[in-house]
Design a protein that fits this description.
The protein has 114 residues and is mostly helical. Helices cover 46% and strands 0% of the residues. Helix 1 runs parallel beside helix 2. It is elongated.
């Protein structure tokens, strides 16, 4: 496969103080939608409607992307732990329940006298 050379972006490509364009704000909106589906402990506390600059957008994008990665890694650990528990349970021999001995005969019910 032929390698495709991509030139480095200029130093002016990202200006943290420049106003965020519509494409960047659309990305922030999509990430906000994804963030709502995360458990509360992974959510950022950044108010997305206040994002106005490229720097603020970059900070939010970075934080949410990291949270998504952490959530997936934690879920993978939980799945692995559950799978190990199921494998261990399948390997364990079933215990025989101790017999309770002979059952006692039921006593006849007494009649009430009037």
């Amino acid at each position: 496969m032929e390698v495709i050379r991509v030139p480095r972006p200029s130093t002016k490509a990202m200006d943290p103080d420049r106003a965020a364009n519509a494409l960047l704000l659309a990305q922030v909106s999509h990430l906000q939608h994804a963030e709502r589906r995360l458990p509360l402990r992974y959510r950022s506390e950044i108010y997305t409607h206040a994002i106005r600059t490229e720097g603020e957008a970059a900070e939010y994008i970075h934080e949410v992307t990291e949270a998504i990665h952490r959530a997936h890694a934690d879920a993978e650990k939980q799945r692995a732990k559950r799978a190990r528990g199921l494998e261990a349970a399948a390997e364990r021999p079933k215990r025989k329940r101790p017999s309770k001995g002979k059952k006692k005969a039921a006593k006849p019910a007494k009649k009430k006298s009037k």
